[in-house]
């Protein structure tokens, strides 16, 4: 009976995290796109860097205090450092799409604003998928208590004595 209830709880928790993450993502997408469009005349890649930096900072605090508040906290420096580093990877994903739009397709930031917004949105979608996975895996979920598997706890040495957690 316990095994039957466990997967739905996991899926429900994951769905709740994903819903909160998506809500925060929607807010920060608006922030990101607003700053991007405001700064687009200075160039799409520069505008993307500034917009992403601002949205990243907002996103960190929202995710830490709402989406992942049920997980143990580690130091602000560690979490934000990892969060920011993983957002740099997300920024690179977004910027590659914008780079292709600007230099591969020769879009102009003054006349092809809609095309840049479509490219930006596509990059955001790919970057967001990476961010959800990486935040959960490395930033906010990294300090979950490890559940030892049965093989590790029941390991025995060559002479038959029990070693590891099972020896306690």
Tally of helical segments: 5
Shape: elongated
User: In what range is the share of β-strand residues?
Assistant: under 5%
The computed structural class is: mainly alpha
Give the tally of structural domains: 1
Instruction: Give the overall pLDDT as a whole number.
Output: 79
Report the uncertain regions. Answer: 146-157, 164-168
| Total strand segments | 0
Largest sheet: none
Helix content: over 70%
Q: How are helices and strands ordered from N to C?
A: HHHHH
Distance between the termini: 29 Å
Radius of gyration: 21 Å
Question: What does this 3D model show about the protein?
Answer:
With 168 residues, the chain is mostly helical. It has one domain. It is built from five helices and no strands.
Features:
168 residues, mainly alpha, 5 helices, 73% helix, disordered C terminus, membrane, GtrA_CellWall_Glycosyl, transmembrane helix
């Amino acid at each position: 009976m316990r095994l039957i209830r466990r997967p739905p709880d996991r899926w429900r928790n994951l769905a709740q995290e994903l819903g909160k993450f998506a809500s925060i993502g929607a807010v920060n997408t608006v922030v990101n796109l607003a700053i991007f469009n405001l700064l687009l005349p200075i160039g799409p890649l520069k505008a993307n860097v500034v917009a992403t930096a601002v949205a990243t900072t907002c996103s960190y605090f929202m995710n830490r205090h709402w989406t992942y508040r049920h997980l143990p906290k580690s130091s602000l420096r560690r979490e934000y450092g990892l969060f920011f580093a993983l957002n740099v990877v997300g920024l690179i994903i977004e910027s590659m799409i914008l780079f292709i739009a600007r230099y591969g397709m020769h879009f102009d930031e003054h006349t092809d604003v809609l095309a840049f917004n479509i490219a930006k949105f596509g990059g955001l979608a790919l970057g967001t998928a990476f961010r959800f996975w990486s935040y959960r895996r490395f930033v906010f979920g990294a300090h979950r208590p490890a559940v030892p598997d049965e093989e590790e706890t029941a390991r025995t040495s060559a002479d038959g004595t029990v070693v590891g957690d099972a020896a306690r």
